[in-house]
Design goal:
Length: 444
Amino acid sequence: MTLKASACRGATRKAVLAGVALCAAQLANAATVTIATLNNPDMLELKKLSANFEKANPDIKLNWVILEENVLRQRATTDITTNSGQFDVVAIGTYEAPQWGKRGWLTPMTNLSADYDLDDVVKTGRDGLSYNGTLYALPFYVESSMTFYRKDLFAAKGLKMPDQPTYDQIKDFADKLTDKANGVYGICLRGKAGWGENMAYVDTVVNTFGGRWFDEKWNAQLATPEWNKAITFYSDLLKQDGPPGASSNGFNENLTLMASGKCAMWIDATVAAGMLYNKAQSQVADKIGFAAAPVAVTPKGSHWLWAWSFAIPKTSRSQDAAKKFAEWATSKQYIELVAKDEGWASVPPGTRKSTYARPEYKQAAPFGDFVLKAIETADPNDSTLQKVPYTGVQYVGIPEFQSFGTVVGQQIAGVIAGQMDVATALKVGNAAANRAVREAGYQK
């Protein structure tokens, strides 16, 4: 080996060692961003693609805490109310963001980077995540609810789904399409207990059947004919035409059932459309039709409004890094990444007007315009036939709702499981709701 070659090789070795030292120093000084989110397909895709973010931001390390929906809500609420500072970014929705923002628990989403283009974000989503005009979370996806159905099964029975079905029609279809011998159920619906699980759907049924949680003086209204009729209809429908074990099924479980061809109909979040139309995720991708969420005595509150979004607790010790991640995860650039990885039908919906203007999205997502309209017409300020003192379509917009909403959800899951009758469940639920608002000082 010549002296020149040896010196060159030595220099190369020194450069490699210097590079390793630099990388080690960067890792040692990296800001860790702990993200608490839920275990649904869109969030799992985000975790997968977040390697792109870490590559572009070597000074930021992402730590993922992925939880079942009910557990996420409990953990996030405990963390924020006790100032424990476990999480730098939390996935929350239109229920929590305004309340937590009002209490000073969240960092306002102001001074966003110039290319974020906040005006491109759908107004309904922004408004639902704001308090007094200040935005407290960035929407990852925004959703309403809708009816999915199997076009092939309807055609085989000579049935036609109207653009706006009624619940009576849904019941008639479910009765005719249930084929338990072949493992096909007329309808799949949420039955898993939780204020954001079964109650998210059940509340829309109650709304459109003319019910409400409270009257204008905050007296609970669960022990009423409207609630009784709604819950009786819902429970009878699931017992007669739903899958076994329906009281354990939430969004993810029903998505799996529908995508594997086990359900003739499913009424749930509009975000599921992107998954059901994705051939890689759905065995019935070419057989799915869609319609509006059903109505009964009133169209008010028949379809919900929700936005899974990223917020930054005031207790986060990595504020700047957390904000950089939240912006990236809800950006136009991230939507392009998903489109490249999963196809345009599967990009996070409901957030950006530019998505709905893309020819590629229009072609891949025949449900796109319908979903956007459902999101824009869901009205949290006018979701019941009779007047109420609260806001929210599928929840009551007060802090106490998490507690009594879950109690009511447990009672109704008990009805589905055959453990109690409707009247008993509603009596218990009514007492829990009354007690909560009375103790909180709402009742005068």
